[in-house]
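Hi there,

I know you've been waiting on this one. I reran it after we fixed the sequence typo, so this is the corrected version. Both the input and the resulting structure follow.
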Amino acid sequence: MKNSLKLSKEEISWILYDVGNSAFVLVMVTAIMPIFFKDFAAKGVADALSTAHWGFANSTASLLLAILAPLLGTFADYKNLKIKFFTIFLGIGLVFTLLLTMVNEGQWRLCLCLFVFARVGWAGANIFYDAFIVDVSDKNRMDRISANGYAWGYIGSVVPFLVIIAMIMTASEKSGVSLPVFQTKIGFILVAVWWLVFSIPMIKNVKQRYFIPPSSSPVTESFKRLWQTLKEIKKYRQAFLFLIAYFFYIDGVGTIISMSTAYGRDLGFDITLLIAVILFIQIIAFPFAIYTEDWQRCFLPKRCC
């Protein structure tokens, strides 16, 4: 694969999936769903308690993925299994996102159960999506492709977000309700549709190039390879330390993403203000995420060495 600025069909398809799945993070994890949960599903529950429930639900989803991820990763090494696992978890995420429209006022337990499965589906699909980077690009282009995925994911997710905000704000002005339930649930459907549409190129165009031959006992072999990896990773000290550091770093980032709006509501911040701040962050993140070495070569003066 040539190291040119032109993106291949596989690379574009990989980037487009981030455009689709980022809408789930923005709407269902960060901005709208926490407010829907606290103001509608958990109506009547004390603010501090509902926020705690929301935090426990997000932690549960993360714990389930942490347990499943290593084993799923070893299974995905077999031929054609990576795309199958990706599609399965994508389906789980989409179905449970749509099922969240069935939640009624006060049904906070049901809401959290559905949300946990939706988030597990989203995060599980991401495991295999991230693993496909080696199949769509070579090592000289991975940084550029990954940066483009992040960047276009930030800016692409703003499109359905703005539509949902417009529906919510228009209905709120007419009814005086802070978060109109019907329009919010329509927003959940829009997220699922947006996510599905931008998943199609990924499913259609991205193929698994690197794999191991099928095994007669894949479960046993997967556990053996997982154990071997755990034993050998200590030999690579820098990589081992990086993984540990990244674990604690990204957990903090994830906590901020999932809990910021819930805490903001407890502190009395207006919905409009919270949404405006989140929208501003999404737009600002785009140029800084896409700022790769290629942009430096294009726009910065040449330096002598």
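Quick highlight: Residues 9-296 form a domain with the Growth Hormone; Chain: A; fold (CATH 1.20.1250.20).

Best,
R. S.
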